[in-house]
Design a protein that fits this description.
The protein is mainly alpha-helical. It contains 14 helices and 2 strands. Strands 1-2 form a two-stranded antiparallel sheet. It is globular and about 55 Å long.
């Protein structure tokens, strides 16, 4: 059926609105209008790779992978466990994160800086000790660096695998360089600016990563017990399976996640492509409206 006739437009609008409401929250329409409609200079122009990656449905899989990978740093996990409220308000946390990404990627430079300032103020209050007695501080540039590189690698990998418009090598290097601008604003010292630097920086954290009870419990909550209506459980399971399949084997083992054979991964990936294509289709009208509202 032609998507411009019959029932398809109504179905697309309903699905797109449901996804947007879940990810962006009650203030989503207002935030979208402010982000895309406010005139002024941006940190990133319309041709920058960060806009291509962060505007794609592959972010749903990349975001889940990032949360799982980030949990393997015991200091980062302890901070999340004690201060984020991810169990009591998981959607609120998702909505705050998605709004931050949208503002810093597409919003005016002033709004992006204000968003960064708010996050840094919150980080300044997040301190404590792990169950093993190790002190953590969310403003620690080294810890911020881990959260950053785990996130960037996850978004990049998911986009390469599931993105509608995969970038070339220079484009993905550009994406890493774009994200470095945001990372520096948040307090990361000398973040990576190319894929080679990203791989090297990730490797430098490997000795600090380990399985903890908190990380394993967080993985079970994220993957098996999401606060979703039953109708949304099957699509979410596809996202979850693909986020697990995208993890390195050592990370799956550390989180007690099932090991997939090469054949198993080959079977999972097409479901991820199909679902991200469906999400992309459902969200297309909202993206077109955002682009038409954006200045310049």
């Amino acid at each position: 059926m032609d998507s411009s006739t019959g029932a398809a437009p109504g179905l697309r609008e309903r699905l797109g609105s449901a996804v947007f409401a879940r990810v962006a929250g009650p203030a989503g329409p207002e935030n979208r209008a402010r982000i895309h409609g406010t005139p002024g200079p941006r940190w990133f122009g319309p041709d920058r790779p960060i806009r291509t990656v962060h505007g794609d449905a592959s972010m749903f899989i990349g975001g889940l992978r990032a949360l799982l990978l980030q949990s393997l740093h015991p200091l980062a996990m302890a901070a999340v466990e004690a201060h984020s409220g991810y169990r009591g308000d998981p959607w609120g946390r998702l909505q705050r994160t998605s709004t931050f990404l949208a503002v810093t990627t597409y919003g005016t430079a002033d709004h992006a800086q204000q968003a960064v300032d708010r996050v840094r103020a919150v980080h300044g209050t997040v301190r404590g000790t792990t169950p093993a007695g190790e002190p953590y501080d969310a403003s620690d540039p080294h810890l911020l660096g881990w959260v950053h590189v785990a996130e960037v690698e996850s978004f990049l990998l998911a986009h390469r695998r599931f993105g509608a418009e995969p970038l070339d090598a220079a484009g993905y290097d550009g994406y890493v360089a774009d994200t470095a601008h945001v990372a520096e604003a948040l307090g990361v010292i000398d973040p990576p600016r190319s894929r080679a630097e990203l791989v090297a920086r990730l490797g430098s954290y490997r000795a600090e990563l380990r399985s903890t009870r908190e990380a394993r419990e967080a993985a079970r909550f994220i993957l098996l017990h999401p606060p979703l209506p039953w109708a949304a459980r099957a699509p979410y399971a596809v996202l979850a399976a693909n986020s697990v399949a995208a993890l390195p084997r050592w990370a799956r083992t550390s989180l007690d996640l099932p090991r997939l054979s090469g054949v198993g991964e080959a079977c999972v990936t097409p479901t991820g492509r199909a679902l991200t294509t469906a999400i992309r289709w459902a969200m297309a009208p909202a993206r077109q409206a955002s682009r038409s509202a954006a200045p310049g």
